[in-house]
Amino acid sequence: MSDGRYSMSFTTGSLFHRESVQLAALYLAVGNWNVVRDQVIAENLLQARTMNTRRRIYSEVVSRLKQMSDNELAFLVEATHQDQACLLWLAVCRRYRFIADFAVEVLHERYITLKHDLHHEEYDSFYNRKSEWHSELEAIRPNTRNKLRQVLFKMLREADFLTTGDLIQGAMLSPALVELILKSRPADLLYLPIFESDLKGIKR
Predict the structure, then answer these.
(1) What percentage of residues in the chain have a pLDDT greater than 70?
(2) In Å, what is the CA distance from 100 to each residue of 89, 132, 189?
(3) What is the mean pLDDT of the chain?
(4) Residue 105 shares a structural domain with residue 139
(5) Residues 193, 96 share a domain
(6) Do 59 and 121 share a domain, yes or no?
(7) What residues are paired with 65 via a beta bridge?
(8) What would the mean pLDDT of 92-96 be, rounded to a whole number?
(9) 153 and 192 assigned to the same domain
(10) Contacts of 96 (CB under 8 A, 6+ apart)
(11) Most CB contacts within 10 A, which of 21, 38, 77, 130?
């Protein structure tokens, strides 16, 4: 992720859990994203109604999967549903620096300081702070801004980090996933609602 402008193109879908696992498995089988794309489009593996939607979803999912190493993709395909969701959240954070910053500065920070509620107001406050340094955020229309917030909160719920009552839930990671993250990108743990002391108990 660059230190420049924020990419804010995450208005499509959410975590894309099923689609991500499906495309990761296909990529591991053929080893070529172009082949994956051709098969997905030709056979409508994503079950999209129109060709444009098919291509848009494929592009979004693959842009996230490409943030993962082959080892992470292999883990994703075989992991439990919860570990899959957590890894997909990390991929989203790697893909979108805005979400990564939100995860570190709001989600993780509120959790470790025992402020376990997370509402739209916290998102709006974060967005407004970032707008002072990122003019591209100021240019986004209110409807699109609301859509971005809606999608982000949906991702948090799908990752099981946020309840329907807007309470932050601690990340439930398997020892295998903790080991994978620590070996590859330990800083990614800051994207999660988790205490450092919890990690010591999870490690093998």
Answers:
(1) 96
(2) 10, 18, 11
(3) 92
(4) yes
(5) yes
(6) no
(7) none
(8) 97
(9) yes
(10) 1, 6, 7, 8, 10
(11) 21
- What is the total residue count of the chain? 204
SS3 label, residue 117 = strand
> What's the whole-number mean pLDDT along residues 77-82?
96
pLDDT at 1 over 50: no
| DSSP code of residue 23 | H
Do residue 131 and residue 50 come from a single domain? no
* CATH number of domain containing 158: 1.10.3540.10
Asked whether residue 2 carries a pLDDT value surpassing 60, the answer given is: no
Domain that holds residue 173: 88-202
Please indicate, yes or no, if residue 2 is contained in any of the structural domains. no
Domain count, the chain: 2
DSSP per-residue string spanning 31-95: --HHHHHHHHHHHTTT--SSHHHHHHHHHHHHHHHTTS-HHHHHHHHHS-HHHHHHHHHHHHHHH
CA dist 169 and 186 (Å) reads 20
Q: Give the Cα separation of 80 and 9 in Å (integer).
A: 28
Distance in angstroms (rounded) separating the CA atoms of residues 192 and 109: 9
Furthest C-alpha separation in the chain: 49
pLDDT at 3: 54
Q: Tell me, yes or no, whether 4 lies in a domain.
A: no
- The DSSP result for 120-171, as a single string, is HHHHHHHHHHHHTT-HHHHTS-HHHHHHHHHHHHHHHHHTTSB-TTSBB---
